[in-house]
Design goal:
10 helices; homodimer; flat; four-stranded parallel sheet; alpha/beta; about 40% helix
């Protein structure tokens, strides 16, 4: 095969919160995480294999003898209270950038603002943030269109606080803020999109414009990884989301001269290196 | 000349605040207004002629024997204090929709937010609002471009409160809110554009799309009138801003089949009626 130029995105991979959570997990061998610590199955398997750090999805089934780690995405307020009541040995690996929207949600709902969250209602981070809302139920919307639909149903109040899932698109967040500014008397816009996510998105966008094929490495259940795939797809025709080097297909590279690589915030460097090595072998 | 169809905008002319100010002025004959009560020279001349209500631009030259009316656009905090210290007989005709941004400016600046005002720094309303800012100087910007320039100069802080002049474009205000949402950690967006202004703008826009010529009636020093002219010009090639029927030019109407009419928030009905009558005479 002809030689292919491989370029890494300027910013990619591990964010501060993920790096911190992995360090916490490694420092607490044989503990259990309530839910997946980060959205990367390979890294979770490594933590279990090398450090005995397991995953338990059901709070009722957690072994009372084990130390408990709170996942990067945070958990629901009630679950945290339950663990504390039981006297569990808790280490909180919730990303500080996720704690912020939880606190904003609590404070602004107490002050009488309607909470609108730009995010996926089913994502653990958003389930956690929602649980901090007091006296009301936040409106969770996943697009500008669903916000407009809520408006049509008169579901938007005049005093609103807008929060974002940390891994959402900054562009759409701005459009949502713009729309709310036109229909509410006050909108408190809290840009809770994390910088690492934003930087990774920007770098993926500019790299995708330059190359013929883009490889996005990350968990298929990872929001920010999927967002990198979506952004790349807007600018590059041939984008592939893979969890590791074994999913690479040599045929993707036939006749291509340039390949860009980026990775989600929960993708460890060792996986990216294996992907790079495999592409060079082709 | 062939027959021309004349259509009035669905919403046009006097807003609540202007109507209220004129009623106040009429109920206080022989008083003096600090600055122009509203931005319409013809109506101001009528109030002077029929009610002896004069205008004084300089607070130091106000006749101490006269009752003082505060203009719809409001005045600066210091000027109000001066009048009160002198024991002047004050009637406040400041539009309630202008008092709101004054209050927001005071409150949010006290709470440590940087105040950004979308408006004309030279307009009396904005001079008034700015004067209510405590401990800091608001950033007054008149366009998205000037906001971007301020950003380049690192003049935007991370916690911002955004206010609008009551008569500004809702569309640009939304774009400004969107831009700030992308660069600040918190933006409190207060949509202080008055509904009447917004309705007049919407109606002018849809009428301008339908007709061959648009007549905008209002003071040439009136912000909201100029905005109606600007919006109409985007959709209709032949737009004319006039203060009264004497400025109408028969040649504008030659060969035209439809004419739209709108008027600023400070344009009294009696002027609009004279304009309509003159067009029918053509």
């Amino acid at each position: 095969m002809q030689k292919i130029e491989v370029k890494l995105a300027k910013n990619y991979g591990f964010c501060f919160g993920v790096r911190r959570a992995i360090e916490i997990a490694q420092s607490r061998p044989n503990s259990v995480v309530l839910g997946e610590l980060i959205h990367n199955p390979k890294e979770i398997a490594r933590l279990e294999r090398d450090f005995g750090v397991g995953v338990c999805e059901d709070i009722e089934k957690i072994d009372p003898a084990k130390a408990v780690i709170i996942r990067t995405h945070g958990i629901q307020k009630n679950d945290l209270s339950k663990l504390k009541e039981r006297g569990a040995d808790i280490t909180d690996a919730t990303c500080p950038f996720v704690i912020k929207p939880q606190e904003i949600c609590a404070k602004c709902s107490r002050e009488g603002y309607e909470i609108i969250i730009f995010g996926d209602a089913a994502h653990p981070e958003i389930k956690g943030v929602v649980s901090y809302c007091e006296n009301s139920t936040p409106l969770v919307i996943n697009s500008l269109e669903s916000l407009k639909a809520a408006k049509e149903q008169n579901k938007i109040k005049s005093k609103v606080a807008l929060i974002s899932q940390t891994t959402k698109s900054a562009e759409v967040f701005g459009q949502i803020a713009e729309f709310l500014s036109g229909i509410c008397s006050e909108v408190r816009v809290f840009n809770t999109i994390c910088n690492a996510t934003f930087d990774n998105q920007q770098s993926a966008r500019s790299l995708a414009k330059e190359v013929e094929i883009m490889i996005i490495v990350g968990g298929k259940n990872s929001s920010n990884t999927k967002m990198l795939y979506k952004i790349s797809s807007e600018f590059c025709e041939n984008c592939y989301l893979i969890e590791d080097e074994n999913e690479l297909n040599v045929e993707w590279f036939v006749g291509k001269k340039s390949c860009g690589i980026t990775a989600g915030a929960s993708t460890p460097e060792w996986i990216i290196e294996k992907v790079l090595k495999r592409i060079k072998e082709f």
